[in-house]
């Protein structure tokens, strides 16, 4: 069997920073791509300074979370010499990823057409807040703005409370995942015919796309969805309930599951009651049914309910805090916590890759890099620069 990583031989020139772009390029790096992370001299990626918490040696937990499997090159791309070095690096790459404001690369003379002249067949991926078209294209994009404008916050939070953002930056992360998908598709096409691609990925588009069935509910009915707390707009019951000793998630996704549940808990009449017999009826009589279930679930502790649901084959789960997430035997078995030796922080724990590909597994080849850790290595290896030349560039603030 070929033990090479799936993206072995693919080089990513990574001009991105913060979250969406670095998450995208980390996914590609996990799959074997050579990711060259270009950072500002002295300052680096903004997230290097986002803390506390900081690991031993001063690296922020935020930066560590999304920058493994990359090599860091410091480069002042706003200088004439730095821009020339960037162009030389692009000639060695297969993909360029950036998340500057719309129009920045064009201002540097690196629009898609110019990039194709520098490196024919290059895949160019731009990640911005609002994309390269439309009236908002020049606005700076932030995750919370995309969550707000993309409809997510309007349906998230208590029914009688204020709109809520997600506990993680889902618009950024979605844009990063969609960008990685588009790049992989473009690489497949490039293998077929050598063509380049221009990928225009927007946080707002990504957030709207994530609305899927909630958006469809509106598009089909013209009725604006409202916040339902932890409840589901189309399935009842499917939410969080309180047992005697804590909260857990429970659902009955179809009428067969509902019938099994009703009979097992001693209420067979619920399965035939005209208010509750089918899912559309249960959705229509949501408040009456949920009140009955709240009273029922308070009669036993959580482990009893979880065990009973396991026996019935019904979906139920405890609501884990992160300490329990990483001590859960399933996440341990799936290697969702990995460790790597970092040059200043020692042994660092990171979230494992969600990609489980036994035939070509993702690898953790490099820890998140120190700022400029690989500058000399990259300039010598890829561009043939002599040590004296690199030292001169460093003295002039270019690298």
Number of helices: 17
Remind me, CATH topology of the largest domain? Rossmann fold
Which spans of ≥5 residues are poorly predicted at pLDDT below 50? Answer: none
Record the strand order, biggest sheet.
3-2-1-4-5-6
Biggest sheet features: 6 strands, parallel
Spell the H/E element sequence: EHEHEHEHHEHHEHHEEHHHHEHHEEHH
- The CATH class of the largest domain: Alpha Beta
In the residues, how many domains can be counted? 2
Task: Specify the overall morphology.
Answer: elongated
Overall mean pLDDT = 95
Quote the beta fraction.
Answer: 5-15%
- Beginning-to-end CA distance, first to last residue: 41 Å
Proportion in helices:
25-40%
Gyration radius over CA: 25 Å
CATH architecture of the largest domain: 3-Layer(aba) Sandwich
In CATH terms, the superfamily of the largest domain is Crotonobetainyl-coa:carnitine coa-transferase, domain 1
- Label the structural class: alpha/beta
Number of strands: 11
